[in-house]
Amino acid sequence: MKVLIPLPVKSENANDALKGRVFEVSLADLNKDEEQAFRKIKLRVDEVQGKNLLTNFHGMDFTSDKLRSLVRKWQSLIEAHVDVKTTDGYLLRLFAIAFTRRRPNQVSKTTYAQSSQIRQIRKKMFDIMTQQATSVDLKELVLKFVPESIGRDIEKACQGIYPLQNILKSPKFDVQKLLDLHGDNLDTGSKMGGGREFKEPEIQESV
């Protein structure tokens, strides 16, 4: 990805002007896959080497159109978030949302979960995100976001409590770690492929 930047003022070093800058790009552009257009990736410039900007993962979010398309009547929306540290020392805040769905052969059109079920589901979401994030480094964790492997684990673990669907996650640094993360691939891009004690947040039963 090529970046055009304005010329720095005389008192400002060009490298310093670039460090810390955050770019937001579509995952569809990074992976050349239009099916991923609803994912927005934030990359932060942590180091400048000549004409190469070494960026680090700064966050992932979803387009507002994607989120609006998932919200429907007669279902419960369940949210959870957790602060985690990867094995290589990066701190992230992970957010997850899930929506209830009908049970097999259910006649009623409503799929509202009870307050006790929402608490159990949120605890499962918290535990799975913590376990998955604290057992890998940042690079491995980012690769888990795209195929939704964490979401599938949450969905499977919560089946006995209440069926879920459309589970989405959104995550909200040291030069040597950054160089290790990039390896030798400075000129060509590549595809992106211990938590705190649980604290029960406010319940949002339905939308």
TrEMBL record:
Transmembrane segments: none
GO BP annotations listed: translation
Pfam assignment, any one: Ribosomal_S3Ae
Region (Disordered): 186-207
Single GO cellular component term: cytosolic small ribosomal subunit
Cellular compartment(s): Cytoplasm
Stretches with biased composition (Basic and acidic residues): 194-207
MF (Gene Ontology): structural constituent of ribosome
UniProtKB keywords: Acetylation, Cytoplasm, Ribonucleoprotein, Ribosomal protein
Main location: cytoplasm
Quaternary context: Component of the small ribosomal subunit. Mature ribosomes consist of a small (40S) and a large (60S) subunit. The 40S subunit contains about 33 different proteins and 1 molecule of RNA (18S). The 60S subunit contains about 49 different proteins and 3 molecules of RNA (25S, 5.8S and 5S).
Family membership noted in the UniProt record: Belongs to the eukaryotic ribosomal protein eS1 family.
Protein name: Small ribosomal subunit protein eS1
Organism of this sequence: Racocetra fulgida
